[in-house]
DNA sequence: CGGATCGGACATTCAAAGTC
DNA sequence: ACTTTGAATGTCCGATCCGC
C-alpha cells in the first residue's frame, strides 16, 4: 500500500553532512519519491524536476506501538493513519521510549579535515528571504541557477481555532516543524510570476510586493488523494497584500476524520479485528525480543545486534 | 495479488569529549 | 559555556514471505 510520508520531506536540510563533506543531493521532488507526502499532489507537466534524487527521509518523533511493531510508517496524529486504516485506532498509543544509557565512556573524537564544512552548512540552513520569510533550505539549496525553481508547498500554520472542531488541537511544534498531518494546514503556495510592480500615490506598492514568492492561499486536504478530492483554491484577491487573511474553504468538503477512511478489508466473519490480531500475534516474538533487550537493572547492558 | 513480516539502511537524540 | 562528535536508539523502506 502506498505508505507515504505524512510530512513534507523538503523541510529539512540534512542535519549532518557526510563525513567527507559532500552534500547529498536534495533536489528530489516528492513526485519522484515513493514517500511522497500525502498532502502533496503531482506537479503540472513541465514543472517536475528531472533529477531523480532522494530527499531525506523524515521520521516521526514517536511512532505508535502498532506501527512500531509493524516497522511501518507512523505519523504524529493519534490515531495514526495506519491504525485508522486497520480499525485499531483505539490501540494507537505512543510507544514508550527507552531511556538512553548514561556514563558511557568514549575515546577522543577525530577532527574533521575541513573546518569550514560546518560553516557552509549553517549558511544553507539559515537561508532567509529578503523580507525575512524563512525558506526551507531545500528550496534555496536545491535550486541551482541552471535548473528551474522547485515550487515549494510547506505547511506554515494552522487554521484558526474552531474552524475544524472535528480535529483535536495540534500538538505544539517547534518553529519550522511540520504540523501533524491530519490537522488541516495552511500552505504557502508559490506564485509562478508576479505581475509588474506598481506604486500607489503614497508610495505604497500596489499589487505584489517585491518578493511575494509565497502567499497564504492554498489549503490542501490532509487526506490521501484517494480519500479526498484535491483542490487548489485560487487566490480570491489577486491583488491583495500577501499578509492579508484569506478565508478558508468551508470544512464540509470532507467528512469528519474517523469517517473519512474505509473500513478495513474484511476477510470473512469477524475478520475486521482478525487481521490486526493476526498481525500482532505473528509479531509478538519480535517485540518480546525487544523487551528482553532492555537494560537489566544494575547489571550488564543488553545490547542487541 | 494484497497484506504481513522483518533485515537493515537511515534518521534522530543526546551525552561525552573537546574548544574557546 | 558552547561546539563537535559519535554511538545509542528509533523509524520505516523495501525485499520477501504467506495466505486467500
From TrEMBL:
Residues 280-292 have a biased composition (Basic and acidic residues). InterPro entries: ERT1_acuK_gluconeogen_tf, Zn2-C6_fun-type_DNA-bd_sf, Zn2Cys6_DnaBD. Residues 63-94 form the Zn(2)-C6 fungal-type domain. Residues 10-19 have a biased composition (Low complexity). Residues 1-33, 95-118, 255-305 are annotated as: Disordered. It comes from Ganoderma sinense ZZ0214-1. The keyword Endoplasmic reticulum does not apply. This is Transcription activator of gluconeogenesis ERT1. PROSITE patterns: ZN2_CY6_FUNGAL_2. Keywords: DNA-binding, Metal-binding, Nucleus, Transcription, Transcription regulation, Zinc. GO terms for molecular function: DNA binding; DNA-binding transcription factor activity, RNA polymerase II-specific; zinc ion binding. It comes from the Eukaryota.
Amino acid at each position: 500500500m502506498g505508505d507515504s510520508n505524512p510530512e513534507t520531506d523538503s523541510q529539512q536540510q540534512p542535519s549532518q553532512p557526510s563525513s567527507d563533506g559532500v552534500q547529498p543531493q536534495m533536489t528530489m521532488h516528492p513526485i519522484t519519491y515513493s514517500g511522497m507526502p500525502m498532502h502533496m499532489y503531482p506537479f503540472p507537466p513541465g514543472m517536475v524536476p528531472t533529477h531523480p534524487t532522494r530527499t531525506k527521509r523524515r521520521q516521526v518523533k514517536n511512532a505508535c506501538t502498532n506501527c512500531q511493531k509493524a516497522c511501518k510508517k507512523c505519523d504524529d496524529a493519534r490515531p495514526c493513519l495506519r491504525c485508522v486504516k486497520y480499525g485499531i485506532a483505539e490501540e494507537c498509543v505512543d510507544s514508550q521510549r527507552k531511556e538512553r544509557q548514561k556514563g558511557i565512556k568514549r575515546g577522543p573524537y577525530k577532527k574533521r579535515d575541513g573546518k569550514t564544512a560546518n560553516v557552509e552548512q549553517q549558511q544553507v540552513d539559515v537561508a532567509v528571504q529578503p523580507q525575512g520569510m524563512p525558506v526551507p533550505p531545500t528550496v534555496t539549496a536545491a535550486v541551482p541557477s541552471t535548473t528551474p525553481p522547485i515550487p515549494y508547498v510547506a505547511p506554515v500554520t494552522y487554521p484558526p481555532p474552531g474552524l475544524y472542531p472535528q480535529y483535536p488541537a495540534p500538538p505544539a511544534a517547534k518553529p519550522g516543524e511540520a504540523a501533524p498531518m491530519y490537522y488541516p494546514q495552511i500552505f504557502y503556495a508559490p506564485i509562478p510570476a508576479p505581475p509588474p510592480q506598481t506604486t500607489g500615490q503614497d508610495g505604497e506598492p500596489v499589487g505584489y510586493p517585491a518578493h511575494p514568492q509565497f502567499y497564504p492561499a492554498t489549503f490542501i486536504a490532509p487526506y490521501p488523494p484517494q480519500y479526498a478530492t484535491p483542490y487548489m483554491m485560487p487566490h480570491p484577491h489577486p491583488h491583495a497584500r500577501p499578509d492579508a487573511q484569506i478565508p478558508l474553504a468551508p470544512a464540509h468538503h470532507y467528512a469528519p476524520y474517523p469517517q473519512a477512511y474505509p473500513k478495513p478489508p474484511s476477510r470473512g466473519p469477524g475478520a475486521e479485528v482478525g487481521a490486526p490480531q493476526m498481525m500482532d500475534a505473528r509479531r509478538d516474538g519480535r517485540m518480546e525480543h525487544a523487551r528482553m533487550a532492555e537494560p537489566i537493572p544494575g547489571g550488564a547492558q543488553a545490547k542487541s545486534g
